[in-house]
What we know:
Elements: H1 2-20, E1 25-26, E2 30-32, E3 35-43, E4 52-58, E5 63-68, E6 75-89, E7 92-107, E8 113-121, E9 130-132, E10 135-139, E11 143-146, E12 165-169, E13 187-189, E14 192-200, E15 209-217, E16 223-229, E17 233-244, E18 247-252, E19 257-259, E20 264-267, E21 273-279, E22 288-295, E23 299-308, H2 310-314
Parallel strand pairs: 2-12, 14-23
Antiparallel strand pairs: 1-3, 3-8, 4-7, 4-10, 5-8, 6-7, 9-12, 10-11, 13-14, 14-15, 15-20, 15-21, 16-19, 16-22, 17-18, 17-21, 22-23
Amino acid sequence: MQVRYFSLALFANVIAVTGAHAHATFETPQAKVDSYYKAVLKVPHGCDGQATLNVRVTVPEGLIAIKPMPKAGWTLETSSGNYTQNYSLHGKQVTSGIRQITWTGSLESDHYDEFVFQARVTHALKPGQPVHVPVVQTCANGSVAWTEIPADGQDPHGLKRPAPGIMILAGSSGHGAGHTSMEQPNFTVGDLVITNVHAGETIPKAPVAGGYMVIRNNGSESDFLIGGEAEFSGDVEIHEMKMDGDIMKMRELADGLEIPAGGEVMLKPGGYHVMFMKLTEDLKEGESRKATLTFKNAGDVEVEFGVKSRKDLMSHGMDHSKHGSSN
């Protein structure tokens, strides 16, 4: 952990030093995963004494939902294109968006100005690593291209015209029921968004294991989680645990688990859960296991269950790996 803090501090110092040498930089040189980032690009000078007539920003992969801020006296243009991968944003699949922003106007060489856009930082960008945003200033005769991207571990201060950099930080963990760690991936199918997908590690040769998650329905009609399949499991059922008098009982939900329109349902130890039956292999902490979930209306979606320790599960409820039967 000390090494990471040192690395972040070093990166911030590099940004400060490059700014002192009149490079194009961002006012805030850090951004968190799974959050919105206000990118304030600082342009300190023109092209060898010439006024800047055009500022063009190329948006790197991993930044989506771009919203540039208009500037008084400048015209604003954008161009869009496809992303190299699909992203989930507020329950919707996002496959394309703004890839380039251009402001056109006039900024005297001895003047300073800022150019602003908003972006969503996705999980494609890894905490502890910078993302670089190429910027080109165009003048009447020539241009200044802040487009050099340092190799891994290279000091950007050693480059003549480094692309402005943003250090990516881990997202904050949510608090309270229904909120999930921002570092975990989201899965979507139809109007459903599935987060915090995990399973419990099993004791050796355990016959069953539990799977947990949060399912959000952004649609106008209810849907039902009715089952699924997994290579490591003979059957996949949807179960409920609840008190019957003084006895905790578990039963299969024959009609599936309702995910109400506009609502959210948490599957957790001691409550609703996916039951992996007839396990063909043990689940070990730290592994990631793929499985398919089936919804009555939305259909099938493949998700990945991150396997957590029994200690973590016991702190939240029952450890299903110790049960030999679902009855």
